[in-house]
Design goal:
Distance between the termini: 22 Å
Number of domains: 1
Number of strands: 10
CATH architecture: 3-Layer(aba) Sandwich
Radius of gyration: 17 Å
Mean pLDDT: 79
Number of helices: 4
CATH superfamily: Mog1/PsbP, alpha/beta/alpha sandwich
Shape: globular
CATH topology: Protein Transport Mog1p, Chain A
Low-confidence stretches: 1-34
Largest sheet: 7 strands, antiparallel
Order of helices and strands: HHEEEEEHEEEEHE
Strand order of the largest sheet: 3-4-5-9-8-7-6
């Protein structure tokens, strides 16, 4: 699973212990239960006015207009798509959208999500929010929003305490298991201040399987 390892360097995340029980029940397929009925799938959001739609093999997702797209395959044969902001010499330069797709996933989806926990703790990632998603064509899906210190951030924190926005990376991550057992990971990230300015919170809602 080379593509997922590659994305994992950016998207090392974990489940919060408090949300684990509901999360694993809620992210599964099937018919649901009386206590937790399965919601209807949520259709993708329309493409924002200043975004364009990327059509990949088996999926579509929107990204800011003018971003550069590169595609390829990793050493396992998995599909890799990298979409990056144009270099303009500013904090937006390292904004990027990464998509990895691995056909024939044989693992357990819930275990995959849980396994992120130890990696997140080691990497210092902080989970901001997490929830199951119900997407057309997916048997299971899970979204995690997280933040972490930028690799090039200064050692000293701001006197007020929090790490400065320009020294913080915000990432929104989506894990999706399709009915054909293709596992898709979508991760959009940028520095905290650039994330809002670029409107990157609008990316994941546009994702859909095709």
């Amino acid at each position: 699973m080379g593509v997922l390892k590659r994305l994992g360097r950016l998207a090392l995340v974990s489940l919060l212990a408090g949300g684990l029980a509901y999360g694993l029940a809620g992210c599964g397929g099937g018919e649901g239960t009386a206590a937790h009925p399965k919601p209807a799938p949520v259709p993708p959001a329309p493409v924002p006015e200043d975004f364009v739609l990327y059509r990949g093999a088996g999926f579509t997702v929107a990204h800011p207009e003018g971003w550069k797209v590169t595609t390829g395959r990793d050493d396992s044969g998995a599909q890799v798509v990298k979409i990056v902001a144009p270099g303009e010499g500013g904090p937006k330069d390292d904004a990027e959208l990464l998509i990895g797709r691995l056909p024939g996933f044989k693992g357990d989806f819930a275990n995959r999500i849980v396994s992120f926990r130890s990696s997140a703790e080691l990497a210092g990632r902080k989970i901001v929010a997490q929830r199951p998603m119900f997407l057309p064509g997916a048997t299971q899906a899970w979204r995690l929003d997280l933040s972490y210190r930028a690799p090039d951030a200064k050692d000293a924190k701001d006197e007020a305490g929090p790490v400065k926005p320009e020294d913080t990376i915000r990432m929104e991550n989506l894990q999706v298991l399709g009915r054909d057992r293709t596992l898709t990971e979508v991760a959009v990230r940028a520095r905290q201040d650039a994330f809002g300015e670029l409107g990157l919170s609008r990316v994941l809602p546009t994702f859909r399987l095709t």
